[in-house]
Design a protein that fits this description.
This protein is an alpha+beta fold and 181 residues long. The protein has helices at 2-12, 75-89, 98-107, 114-123, 127-138, 143-150, 157-165; strands spanning 23-24, 29-30, 34-41, 44-51, 66-67, 70-71.
């Protein structure tokens, strides 16, 4: 639980979370919402965030979702989290449309999984409407280029815009009712 992880970091420092030593690059910040810091691993600075997510129930990460031995969120939970963040922040220009851009790059032209939309939609009813608002917002003249520059992105803007425009919900499936005989 988040409570247990916070207790480990409070008592043992970051080393309590890792099997191998890591070098903290700045002071760890902890509050009711999360634990945040930067660490160095193999000469690379990595942003480490452990966040308490109370709006949706997360699925248990599977071993195949592990990155460097750390189990990561399932794809559905990653997308649902980004949808929630987009709903929270799409109109805030200081965020540089990062959640919409992240979604577009994560999904790479594929539809948004219905399971992620449903999960996020149980927390916020406006998920799909907010997604459309964010897509319109990013099309303002010069906005995407400014966002990409601020986010230090090197991809061609046309590619990013194409992926944003392709963000669409996975169609609803219709179940056939058993016929009465």
């Amino acid at each position: 639980s988040y409570r247990d992880l916070r207790g480990i970091v409070s008592n043992e420092g970051l080393s309590g979370l890792f099997v191998e030593p890591v070098t903290p690059l700045r002071e760890t910040r902890m509050d009711q919402y999360g634990i945040r810091t930067f660490v160095e691993v193999d000469g690379v600075a990595i942003k480490l965030e452990i966040v308490l997510e109370a709006r949706i129930e997360l699925d248990v990460p599977q071993a195949e979702n592990a990155v460097c031995g750390v189990r990561a969120l399932t794809h559905v939970d990653q997308v649902a989290g980004k949808l929630l963040a987009n709903s929270d922040r799409w109109a805030d220009d200081s965020v540089d449309s990062r959640d919409l851009i992240d979604l577009a790059m994560m999904l790479d032209g594929r539809t948004i999984p219905r399971a992620a939309l449903d999960k996020a939609g149980r927390a916020y009813g406006s998920i799909e409407a907010d997604l459309e608002r964010a897509k319109t917002h990013v099309e303002r003249p010069g906005h995407l280029l400014r966002c990409m520059r601020n986010l230090h992105m090197t991809q061609p803007p046309a590619l990013v815009l194409d992926r944003i425009r392709k963000l669409r919900p996975e169609p609803l499936t219709v179940r056939k009712r058993a016929s009465k005989r």
